[in-house]
Design a protein that fits this description.
Elements (H helix, E strand, L loop, with lengths): L3 H23 L2 H17 L1 H4 L5 H17 L12 H11 L3 H11 L5 H8 L3 H18 L7 H6 L2 H4 L7 H28 L17 H4 L21 E6 L23 E8 L5 E9 L3 H16 L7 E11 L2 E9 L5 E10 L2 E9 L7 H15 L9 E9 L27 E2 L3 E2 L20 E9 L10 E8 L3 H21 L3 E9 L6 E10 L6 E11 L2 E8 L8 H15 L5
Antiparallel strand pairs: 1-2, 2-3, 3-7, 4-5, 4-8, 5-6, 6-7, 9-11, 10-11, 11-12, 12-16, 13-14, 14-15, 15-16
């Protein structure tokens, strides 16, 4: 039987780090103190069970976080007046992360929880937890000037604030825990007596579930964007509202890439408002989803962002992304396009405030999308309108937008996504990618470089193939990518340099090979990429088979990309370089 002395020892040895972890999750010292204190009281109540666990801390921590977040969610993100600029910076970076990503980062760096247990604590699969950690690491490193190696020390710097929290003495926690247990026992006994005495003659009435509030009582139509508020998106054209609905009837797909009627299937309600200009040269769709809680809204935000980051609409291309600070709790802008004879381009803005998630999608009939700053202004107005709702959270502060890495696509972390791939000739069918497989053979290698990830020391390299299966293209056409992680960044750099050296000497070694284009940018191991256009003679008739090949490195991770064009189904050097740069950006999802 676990003893009171063992509880006291457990409490004294773990309370400080639990305050630090809870503070990192909430950014609120007062809420962190309350959550930790109450969680330990509950642990003392159940100590006969909790004390037998291998890691009692794993029982206390999620309860402390839940209590603290519930307490914290009643007011905006809290800033302590005594924060240093460095501490404020790391808190702001954490605050910008979705809840699951923030918890995964804290569990890994401050709690030293194995990845196999991180998913359990945040209610996700291990694979999904790894994706959350990768995304959180990339976003936090970006917010902290690109330094991913210093994340742990920056998080630990919050310990100075955690040390200012005064928690009750062990005896006080112990007494409160025992009092809690006695109160529960008394209440349980009273209910048992009441049921026994009244059996057969007394029916306890069930408390009725509170009625779900109507969406219009939480977000009215007056809180949606008005025609005059979207004029900056096309100042010389007369915008008009073409419809407002709750999206419960008819065709639910209001924008390209949307894969479900609602991002929050258990939400309280949705508003969709559509705008257009004369001749439909520009159109805008605003969506507002009302969730049951800020936590549910965070998931709706992630789902909405995932629709566009993982879009598979034919020929769609994700051009760039921006993280926006100062609008609600989270905001991001993406720019996309569909190149064709009748081009279409899109600017997507997504923001979350409290229990509300709002998105706006601007479509233009132009080769290039509108400036991202136009959507930032529209998002600002949208959240300002919603701030009068009683379920809104943070409103609008000093608004800034910074270029960011592409958001996770939901496909294979660290590898190219469908929305990253180029449009090819006049093909109007979508790309499709295989599941990643062990790279026993490097499908991205050429006869010039003959790169072998496994034999060169990469750990568990994987490869993926991308095709346009419904387009009827020649069998030789396709794109392959191989990804590997090396033991050190130095080893990864040596591997990339060997590829570059072999490509440079290839025409001298392989007389049937010709390198017609090369771009080599290998100065920094955290920002390295190179690409080549290679042509191989395959028969006596001097038929040449062309290849585009690129290699990228971020830290310990290397990826190789190979596009095999056929005839007109080809891309130019600028397009392939953009693809290689995107492959490099994707490596940030896995490099820690």
């Amino acid at each position: 039987m676990p003893t009171a002395e063992e509880f006291d020892e457990f409490y004294v040895n773990t309370r400080r780090r639990l305050v630090l972890q809870t503070y990192a999750v909430t950014g609120d010292l007062t809420a962190a103190r309350t959550g930790v204190r109450d969680a330990y009281v509950a642990a003392r109540h159940h100590w006969s069970k909790v004390g037998r666990m291998d890691q009692p801390e794993h029982w206390v921590r999620p309860r402390a976080w839940t209590i603290a977040q519930r307490r914290h969610s009643t007011r905006p993100w809290h800033k302590e007046k005594s924060l240093s600029p460095e501490q404020a910076e790391i808190l702001e970076a954490l605050h910008a992360l979705p809840d699951a990503q923030r918890k995964a980062l804290v569990l890994t760096h401050l709690a030293a929880v194995p990845m196999s247990d991180v998913g359990r604590e945040i209610g996700e699969t291990q694979e999904r937890a790894e994706q959350h950690l990768q995304a959180a690491t990339a976003a936090t490193a970006l917010a902290l000037d690109g330094d991913s190696t210093g994340i742990r020390s920056r998080l630990e710097s919050l310990g100075a604030m955690a040390d200012t929290v005064r928690l009750p003495r062990p005896a006080t926690i112990r007494r409160n825990g025992l009092r809690r247990r006695r109160n529960h026992a008394v209440i349980g006994s009273a209910v048992a007596v009441l049921i026994t005495v009244g059996a057969g003659s007394l029916v306890l009435p069930q408390s009725a579930s509170p009625a779900r509030p109507r969406p219009a009582t939480l977000v009215s139509k007056k809180m949606l964007l008005a025609a005059e508020q979207v004029v900056p998106l096309a100042p010389k054209q007369a915008w008009q509202v073409t419809g407002t609905s709750d999206n419960t009837k008819g065709d639910w797909r209001n924008t390209m890439c949307q894969t479900a009627r609602f991002a929050d299937t258990k939400g309280l309600g949705t508003w969709v408002r559509k705008f257009t200009t004369p001749a439909a040269q520009r159109s805008l769709v605003q969506t507002v989803e009302i969730s049951n809680s800020p936590g549910a809204a965070k998931k709706a935000y992630d789902t909405t962002l995932g629709w566009y980051a993982g879009c598979t609409t034919p020929r769609i291309q994700l051009l760039d992304a921006y993280v926006v600070q100062g609008i609600g709790e989270q905001a991001q802008v993406l720019r996309m396009r569909i190149p064709s004879a009748q081009p279409r381009s899109f600017v997507v803005g997504i923001a979350r405030t409290g229990s509300l998630t709002t998105s706006a999608v601007l479509e233009t009939q132009t080769p290039e999308p509108a400036d991202a700053q136009l959507m930032v202004s529209t998002l600002t107005t949208s959240v300002q309108n919603l701030c009068s709702s009683k379920v809104a959270g943070t409103c609008v502060g000093a608004v800034t937008a910074q270029p960011s890495l592409p958001p996770p696509s939901g496909e294979t972390a660290g590898m190219l996504a469908i929305a990253d791939l180029p449009a090819v000739a006049d093909v109007d069918k979508p790309w499709a990618g295989t599941d990643p497989a062990a790279a026993t053979v490097n499908l991205a290698a050429t006869t010039c470089d003959e790169a072998d990830f496994a034999k060169s020391g990469a750990q568990r390299p994987v490869t993926r193939t991308y095709l346009i299966p419904d387009a009827g293209l020649p069998d030789r056409f396709g794109l392959s990518e191989t990804l590997g992680e090396f033991a050190t960044a130095k080893a990864a750099t040596a591997f990339v340099q060997r590829i570059a050296a072999r490509m440079k000497s290839c025409p001298d070694r392989e007389l049937a090979s010709k390198v017609s284009h090369a771009v080599v940018q290998l100065q920094s191991p955290d920002d390295a990429y190179a690409l080549w256009r290679l042509e191989n003679q395959v028969n006596k008739q001097e038929d040449l088979v062309p290849f585009w090949m690129g290699v990228v490195q971020v830290g310990r991770h290397v990826a190789q990309v190979n596009l095999t064009p056929v005839g007109k189904y080809d891309v130019d050097a600028k397009t392939f370089e953009a693809l290689v740069v995107r492959a490099r950006d994707r490596l940030h999802e896995v490099d820690k």
